[in-house]
Amino acid sequence: MTNSLSVIILAAGKGTRMQSAKPKVLQTLAGKPLLGHVLDTCNDLTVAKTIVVYGFGGDQVQSAMDTRYAHLPITWVAQTEQLGTGHAVKVTLDELPKEGQSLILYGDVPLVSCQTLTDLQAANTDGMSMLTLTVDNPFGLGRIKRDASGNIEAIVEQKDASATEQKIKEINSGIYCVDNALLHKYLPKLSNDNAQSEYYLTDIVKMAVADGIAIAAIEPEHTFEIEGVNNRQQLASLERTWQGKLVADLQEAGIQFADPARVDIRGTLSAGQDVFVDVGVVFEGDCTLGDNVYIEAGCVIKNANIGNACHIKPYCVIDRTEVGSGVDIGPFANLRPDTVLSDNSKVGNFVEIKKSVIGQGSKVNHLSYVGDAIVGTDANIGAGTITCNYDGVNKSQTIIKDKAFIGSNSSLVAPVTIGESAVVAAGSVITENVENKALALGRARQVQKPDFERPTKKSK
Ligand code: UD1
Ligand code: CA
């Protein structure tokens, strides 16, 4: 256990500038709460203990995270008054192991990478390492003071910095890896005798230097890894930066985006070769695309797997759906959860499908609702077909067997089975099972009155 790693995530800040009823760390980036990003990154490291320091909206934060991260036990520590970053870490001491090391992270700095944190931990050979960065505009941030030989001496906050110190361009990210023994030793000794009357975590650097500890500093690979979120503008700007990175990685893997700036990935996306994604497409949750998938403008695709050579026409919503190969969908199709579209099937415009299987080569091309249905292979569901799956209380199933043909504007009142190669006449209301190869007509017989005399206008 001596070298075990703990993580302390500071998340007590109120986030006043977000102008939100939600605690800041629950604001979402790429569809996931800011704090969720940090916890997911910790999940990829080998962490013995995860401590989150909460303040404002603690109940909301805990319930949101505990459901999402049930697999990752979080130790919650309250910081009732926000007296500074040093105080925030100090309140964890009762929970913090005496041995091992801690990464100190922030609930509102969502994008620090697992690799950077691994490197930071590796850099901590003498007790303390930190992430720093040299920037053009260091205003507002803590500056790294180094001695003549380049060794870190201290961190000085903007508000405490002299004119000379303000010229330093190497800034403190606020992210550190510190031996727990040092945290236990230094934090109780912090004072708030500074320009902001706060307990500065940064003061532990001076204390370590006084103890002869050499402080290591590394830089993150990407600037966005240390960027924090304080207002809506910063959140939106970090979102765009992150989307840019996700899209660039996917381009490297071979996906063609019509416009890399007009696609959003709120989860994970993996794709085969020669995939094309047009503008305005949103991917949510975990999605996979096969080879040669072609997705047109404005589609929302969520937790879906889409097979090779599928063509998704504009403005489709595809949610928790398994799509085989060579399937055509849309435009304007609404595929709801637990839908399976088998190979070479077709779903056309203004078709809603819910919790149904559409067999190989079957077609539902126009204006239909198919719910709780199992459709065999090579069946044709005519325009305007409705599976009446709900009687107001219970849901019932419709079974449509291979090669069945459902005429346009039919209502199939479930539970009902349409046999293999059976035909349902257009405009039917089908309430009884139809045998294989039968023709079912469930509509009024047409009446004809010959030589019908059309009314004429009455004269007054
Ligand atoms: C801190 C660093 C500064 C660094 C900067 C990077 C200190 C004293 N300064 O400054 O050197 O350049 O981060 O962004 O550490 N928090 C709590 N409880 C508190 C105070 C803060 O949980 O009592 C949390 C906040 O929610 C926030 C984070 O800690 O997520 C940083 O706090 P903030 O006051 O914004 O620190 P800075 O002044 O930016
Ligand atoms: Ca501050």
List the helices and strands and how they pair.
Layout: E1 5-11, E2 28-29, E3 32-33, H1 34-44, E4 49-54, H2 58-68, E5 74-78, H3 85-90, E6 101-106, H4 114-123, E7 128-134, E8 143-146, E9 152-156, H5 163-166, E10 170-179, H6 180-186, H7 203-210, E11 216-218, H8 232-252, E12 256-257, E13 263-271, E14 276-277, E15 281-289, E16 294-295, E17 300-302, E18 305-306, E19 311-312, E20 317-319, E21 321-323, E22 328-329, E23 333-335, E24 339-341, E25 346-349, E26 351-354, E27 357-358, E28 363-366, E29 369-371, E30 373-375, E31 380-381, E32 386-388, E33 398-400, E34 405-406, E35 411-413, E36 416-418, E37 423-424, E38 429-430, E39 439-440
Parallel strand pairs: 1-4, 1-6, 4-5, 7-11, 12-14, 13-15, 14-16, 15-17, 15-18, 16-19, 17-20, 18-21, 19-22, 20-23, 21-24, 22-25, 23-26, 24-27, 25-28, 26-29, 27-30, 28-31, 30-33, 31-34, 32-35, 33-36, 34-37, 35-38, 37-39
Antiparallel strand pairs: 2-3, 6-10, 7-10, 8-9
Uridine-diphosphate-N-acetylglucosamine binds at residues 10, 12-13, 53, 79, 82-85, 87-88, 106-108, 141-142, 155, 157, 171-174, 200-202, 228.
